[in-house]
Design goal:
about 400 residues, alpha+beta, Serine Threonine Protein Phosphatase 5, Tetratricopeptide repeat, Neuraminidase, 3 domains, 5-stranded mixed beta sheet, 5-stranded antiparallel beta sheet, 8 helices, 20 strands, globular, disordered N terminus
Length: about 400
Amino acid sequence: MFLLSACYLFVALNTNLQHAQFYIFFSFILLFVNLSSFAQLNGDLREEVINRSTEKEIKMLDLADKYYIDREFLLALPYYDTLLTKFPDNLYLSYLLGSCSVFDADKQKSSEKFIKKAESIKSKLFDYDYYLGKSFLVNDKYDDAINQFGMYLTNPINDDLKNEVIRQISICKNAKESNSKFALAKITNIGSPINTKGSEYCPIFPSDERFMVFTYRGEKSKGGKQSMPNKKDEKEGIYFEDVFISYKGPRGEWSEPLSIDAINTTGHDAAIYLSQDGQRLFIYRNLSSGKPEKVKGINSNAWEGSVCLSPDQKTIYFSSERPGGLGGRDIYFATLQADGSWGNVKNLGPEINTKYDEDAPFVHADGKTLFFASNGHTTIGGYDIFKSEMKSGKWQNHLMLVNP
């Protein structure tokens, strides 16, 4: 399945954001989903569910299965959850719900229970060992995961699937080694008034940390709720994103967050990067509203979604899925030209980029330390945080940071 949609990144000049000027950074998202990998259904077991279902429940199953085959597990999950509530003894639905729960941070702990419930029918579930292995992995049971992935490798699978399972085993080994070397960091919730029952994420700060800009999704969203696919009821939708700002008080407390009305539209608006002097704010927007001006020199027909500036603001780093890179998503840089455009675009090379995805670059105020996210290198699962130091004008081999 191909999903094609437009996205926009803007930069707002001046911290008086109620009167901000915007420059557009335009790209397209092109997403290809491999339907053949780890998303197989069993027709006979499915038919057993259908024979016990009402017309409404069959439509729910059809939609869930479509999302599952397309590997849209988070969209499939609530439907399988509802169906399993209706048929709590159905082992097949339990397996499907458990497989989807592996990809939901709030439900990962329960994924093993749901998958194991279907152990008696595992011979009918081709990917059972894979998803149980994934469940072990996300719950830090690395030895169990390695054994389970090893069992999956005994199946007659193609080379692409085999390589992916071998990579999962490598991730388990990396995680074990990482845990044996480093102590975990302590995480403290920042609390109210920043955090609410909605979602708050991607906080960004100027170098003096006098204010914080972040992305908000909740009841205060300017665009309200967007409809879920094939759903007309607003209650089934999710909120659009907005950009909010909060100021730090004299005792380090944060003020009540405010919507940045000069930026937010009825679509998605999300914070991406704030320059260290606090004068330039990059945002994502999925609506081409207003009269923005394109940032010149680095836009392409591929996806470009994360940016940051060097301390002197003469170099821009950005992630892109343009052809000619080392993998799916790479980090590039460009230099500021005399006319204000960006030119001399170059890939950061194999010291930073892999055949997998690299994203979210951030250059420290010293100008010599690059932080970035990657699901390649010595990842311990999903995107991990890495850093590289510049020596003699060149970024050095990565060093993974501990992810708590």
